[in-house]
Amino acid sequence: MSAIITEKFRQHNANQFIESFTEASKSTYYLFLGKTTGFTSSTTGGSDSSPPTPADSVKDEAFAWDSMLGAKLISSSDIKNSIPRRNWSNGTIYDMYEHDISASNTTTSGASNLYDSTFYFITSEYRVYKVLDNNGGTAYSGSEPTSESNSPFSLGGYILKYMYKITASDFAKYGTSDFVPVTTDSTVSAAATDGGIESLIVTGGSGYTDGTYYAAVYGDGTSQGTSSGAVIRITVSGGIIADFGLSAGTDTTINSAGAGYTFGYVNLGAAYIFSDSDLSSSSSLGSGSGGAIKVIISPKGGHGNNAIEELGGHYVMAAITLTQAEGDDFTTANDFRSVGLVVDPTNYGTSTVASATTRRQSYVVKLDTSSGTFEADEVITQAGTGAVGKVVEWDSTLSLLYYQQESYKGFGTNSTTGGYVAFSGTNTITGGTSGATGTTTGNTETVTLLNSNSLSLTSGYANPELQPDTGNIIYLENRKPIQRASDQTEDIKIIIEF
At residue 286, what are phi and psi to the nearest 5 degrees? Predict the structure, then answer.
C-alpha cells in the first residue's frame, strides 16, 4: 500500500502545537538546560567534542531529569511558525511555484516536493517573495526586489509575488542562519483571489502565424471557458508562442485571472482561438505545431492568502532568552550540555502542573562547618549514608552546595551496587577531588539568595522545584559544552519540524 503524510497534515500539527499554548485547556511547556558533567564512553557515550545523539527511550528521558539544572516557562510569544531561510542572491537559479510538483514533474533543482525546493527567497531587508516564473530555469539577473505590490511583477527576468515582510524585532528574535519566521500579511491576503490564474508555462512550438490572440481557460473555474472566466492573451512572434510574462505585445500574458479554478486547460485548436478578449471574433494560430500553454493553479485562497501554508510553515521555532541566573534558578558557575522541552511537569511533591516562570532543578544542602573549596563537577560522597553525587555549584558565601545525582555508578549511585541513596542527615560530605569537607546544618530555615530569591531548607536540604519524571520530555538535544557566566545571556532557538 502506498501512502504519504501530506504537507497539510504537517501544517495542521504545527498549528495545533502553537494553539496548545493559548487554548482553554492549554499545555505548559518549559525549556530546560542540563548536564554539567562531560559525556563519556562509560556513561552516556560520546564525548564533549562529539556529543552522543539522544535516544528516544525511557532511559534517556529519565537521565535528562537526573541531570537537569533549571527550567524556564515558554510563553506563546516565544513560539513562531518558521520556514527554511533561502536568501536572495543575484545570479542564483531559483525554482518556481507549480501546483503539481512530484517525482514525475520535478522542479528546476530536481526537487520532487514543492516545499523542498527554492521557490521563494528573502531579501536583505527581510521581504519574502514567491517565484511565479523563473524564466525557464535561468539565473536571476538584476537588482534586489523591494516592491510590496499586491500584484505579481517582473524583475531579474523572473515574475515575483510579494508575500510579507519580517519585522526587525521578529527577525532579531526568530531569525537564524537557517530559518526565518513566517507570517501572513493581511493586506496581501485580502487582495488574493481564490483559484485565480496568475502564471503559465508556455511551450513555444513552431510554424504559427505571428499575431495576438486570445483563448479561454477551461476547467472548473467560475464561468470557465468564457470571456467571464480566465482568459489568456497569446503572442506569437517568429512562428513561436512567446513565453509567459507581464508585458503585453511581447509576452504571452494573463488577460484576466478568473477565479475558482482547481484545474484548467487552454486549447490551441482553431475553434478555441479568438482575435479579441471578448472571445467574439474567431481566429486561428495557423498551421504550427508543438505549442502548449499550461496554466498554473494557485494555492487555496490564492497567492498570498496564507503565507504560512503556502511557503511550508510546518516548522515551529521556540526562541527563549536566559538572562544570567534567572533569579537564582540557573547556575552561572558551571556549563551545560543538554537542552530540551518538557510539557506539563508538576511542582515537586505535588500533582499540580508547574506554572512559575523559572524552576531550579538541582538539589541543595547548607553546610554548617566546612573546610576547603568544593569544585564544580567533582564527586561528593557522604559518610554513613553512602550517598554519591556531583557538584553543580559551591556558594561559599552562603555555604550552599548545589549538586545532582546522575544514574551512573560513581556519578550518583553506589559504585559497587549501583543503588541510589539520597543525601540525608548531618554526616560529613567530602569532595573527591578538592578534599573539601562539610557537615549539614540540619536546620529548617529560609535563606535569601544573591538575587533576593528565597530558598527553603528542611533539615538542611532543599529538593528540586519540579518533580522529576513528570510530564513528558518532547525534545532533547545534546551539544558541546557551553560555559555560563554571571553577566551572560543566552538566546536559545529550537526548531521543531512537524
Answer: 90, -160
H-type helices in 80-228, by residue range?
A: 168-174, 186-191
Which amino acid is located at 297 in the chain?
A: I
- Identity (one letter) of the amino acid at 231? V
For residues 365 and 400, the answer to whether their CB atoms sit within 8 Å is yes
User: Cell numbers of 222, please?
Assistant: 467560475
pLDDT above 90 covers a percentage of the chain that reads 92
Tell me phi and psi for residue 179, to 5 degrees.
Answer: -140, 155
- Please, what is the Cα angle at 53 between 50 and 56, to 5 degrees? 165
Mean pLDDT of 104-128: 97
Q: Give the contacts of 417 (CB within 8 A, at least 6 positions apart).
A: none
Between vectors from CA 339 to CA 56 and to CA 43, what angle results, nearest 5°? Answer: 60
Calpha distance 365→376 (Å, rounded):
15
Task: For residue 498, give the DSSP letter.
Answer: -
Q: What pLDDT, on a 0 to 100 scale, did the predictor assign at position 310?
A: 98
**Cα–Cα distance list, 54 to 239, 430, 496 (Å):** 63, 32, 15
- Per-residue pLDDT, averaged over 208-212, amounts to 98
Q: What's the CA gap between 138 and 94, in Å, rounded?
A: 8
Mean pLDDT of the chain: 96
pLDDT at 419 over 90: no
Residue 307 phi, psi dihedral angles, 5° rounding: -60, -35
Q: pLDDT grade, residue 414 (50/70/90)?
A: confident
| 408 pLDDT above the threshold of 90 | no
10 Å Cβ neighbour count for 57? 9
C-alpha cell at 246: 507581464
Alpha helices in 5-99 (DSSP H): 7-19, 58-66
Handedness of CA 338, 339, 343, 348 (dihedral sign): positive
Q: Is 51 left (phi over 0), alpha (psi -120 to 50) or beta?
A: beta
Please give the Cα distance from 488 to 61 (Å, whole number): 28
Locate 434 and state its grid cell.
Answer: 578538592
Determine the pLDDT at residue 300. 96
For 434-488, how does the pLDDT look when each residue is reduced to its tens digit (9 = 90+)? 999 999 999 999 999 988 899 999 999 999 999 999 999 999 999 999 999 888 8
What does residue 428 show for φ and ψ, rounded to 5 degrees?
Answer: -70, 135
Please tell me the distance from the alpha carbon of residue 313 to that of residue 83, in angstroms, as a whole number. Answer: 5
